[in-house]
Amino acid sequence: MRGLILTVMMATCAAGSAVAQVADLRSTTQFRVCADPANAPMSTRDGTGFENKLAERFGEWLDLPVTYSWFPSGMGFITRTLRAGTCDVVMGYAQGDELVQNTNHYYTSIFGIVTRKDSPLASVDHIGDPALKDHPIGVIAGSPPATIMARAGLAKDMRGADLFVDRRVKDPIGGLIDGVRDGSLDAAVLWGPLAGPRIKDDPDLQFTPLLKETAGPKMFYRITMGVRLGEQEWKRQLNSLIRRHQDDINQTLREAGVPLVDDYGKAILE
């Protein structure tokens, strides 16, 4: 996913009027994906990200080879890729964004707390838990849980990281997780698809989904694919594939370690 945080922040920061959309730019000989080359664990140039694996599955279902238009996440990503016509789909995009036309969502995930399994904070399952106070907690600056943490009186305990960096040379999510691992942080509140795959095989760390948060902003988001605004037929074709292959999609995501929740963010899907 292009991660949820990036999606929300790009939509908020986008300036100027939308570029005129031109329909029928889609290739009929390739499944052309717009992606960040260094957005592990989602998309990577070496093809190991879970969005790469999903793209391969969609390519198989369409009987088309998968090709990529690479560009770093952040401002200009959609303009330089999807709108420029160099690719036809963004694999992970938050539902409701106006920069693209959203397909039906193909998974729903959630923010959660990464802790050591032997930590006194291991049982914490909501941000308002008093046990979190006076502990250094990592969080992505400007992300939805950062707002709730500030309201809960945790501002002085927050250790923020900026997601708007060149992730070919910096890894803010990995840095926060390493902080929990080495004890310089007692916890980190992170988006599930960014954190879950990184710790799924770690014997010392755990991810606890924030299923109990009731105050906004919400902690769960439905993830779609993004296509150009005028391409209704292409959207319908992808929607049909999502509907017919949802079980396969879920299996790919679970194998990657992505925490899946129901459409209302109330329960983990097994």
TrEMBL record:
Key words, A-Z: Signal
Signal peptide: 1-20
Name of the protein this chain belongs to: Quinoprotein dehydrogenase-associated putative ABC transporter substrate-binding protein
UniProt keyword Transferase, yes or no: no
Annotated Solute-binding protein family 3/N-terminal domain residues: 30-256
The keyword Signal appears for this protein: yes
Organism, as annotated: Paracoccus maritimus
Entry-linked SUPFAM superfamilies: Periplasmic binding protein-like II
